[in-house]
Design a protein that fits this description.
It contains ten helices and two strands. The chain is mainly alpha-helical. The chain has one domain. α3 runs antiparallel to α5.
């Protein structure tokens, strides 16, 4: 009965889809383009912050390049583990964000060796955050255009419909929620926009916090805590639900939150009084 009701709603969507926030499928595979834009935007912001800190960009190029490559390899590796080895040859899709974070953390010891001693890994990580956040926001635009990473069916005023042959359309078709002749999907949560707003807000917030932090590493850890916790909660709206993505984000958020709390406790702990010598 429920599938019949959904199919009926989909038939109605043939005529009213455009009036309810419909998204047409993109004409060309755009992920490589958006990935390049994300890397360029992130690098530009990173370079601007280095200039503000009076750190030569050339002194960190090796560390930065290693971090970017590690993130891309980690994202692709996790996609291959979750979606099959065939993803290794796909350039237009097949990148899982938690894999990028995990690979970046694993590469941290090697990255630190490539950084100038005066900079340090913790301070350098803080400078990465704004560019990383805005790069994520750009990639979410690609998700929106392709109709992937969509949310569950809903009737909210800001719900979106995706056009025929989009990723969301194929998902609902495979589940029997819409018939093959449906021109639009059922209205769904715009999960891509939720994640975009989360990344964009944290990017702006990190720019504000950089000049107000009380210790190196705080901006990076706070970003991980807020972004991963927020993303983990939002993953409950993803359809189809991917438990691995939700729990990995929540675990990263919890871990970074604990480290941040320990750092704050150590900074606030009063120094032990020195014994007075007779």
């Amino acid at each position: 009965m429920e599938s019949e009701l959904r199919a009926g709603s989909a038939r109605a969507g043939l005529t009213e889809g455009k009036a309810q926030g419909a998204m047409a499928p993109r004409l060309l595979p755009s992920f490589p383009v958006f990935l390049a834009l994300a890397v360029l935007a992130g690098t530009a912001i990173y370079g601007a912050l280095l200039r503000r800190e009076r750190v030569p960009l050339s002194s960190t190029l090796g560390a930065y390049a290693l971090a970017v490559v590690a993130a891309l390899v980690g994202a692709k590796a996790l996609s291959c583990l979750m979606d099959g080895p065939g993803m290794v040859l796909r350039l237009d899709t097949g990148y899982r964000y938690p894999g990028a974070v995990a690979a970046g953390l694993l590469a941290a010891p090697l990255v630190s060796r490539l950084l100038p001693r005066a900079l340090g890994l913790a301070r350098w990580s803080d400078l990465l955050v704004p560019g990383m956040a805005f790069a994520l926001a750009i990639l979410r635009i690609d998700c929106l255009l392709s109709g992937c990473c969509t949310g569950t069916v809903c009737t909210l005023p800001w719900a979106l419909r995706f056009a025929r042959r989009s990723a969301a359309w194929y998902t609902q078709l495979g589940e029997g929620a819409i018939p093959f002749e449906a021109a639009w999907t059922l209205p769904v949560h715009p999960l891509q926009l939720y994640l975009l707003v989360l990344a964009l807000g944290l990017g702006l917030g990190s720019l504000w916090l950089l000049g107000r932090k009380t210790g190196d590493g705080q901006v990076f850890l706070l970003f991980l805590f807020l972004h991963e916790t927020g993303k983990g909660l939002l993953e409950s709206l993803r359809h189809p639900h991917v438990p691995e993505l939700q729990w990995s984000s929540l675990a990263l958020g919890l871990g970074s939150g604990l480290v941040l709390a320990m750092m704050s406790f150590r900074q606030r702990r009063p120094a032990l009084a020195r014994p007075v010598l007779p």
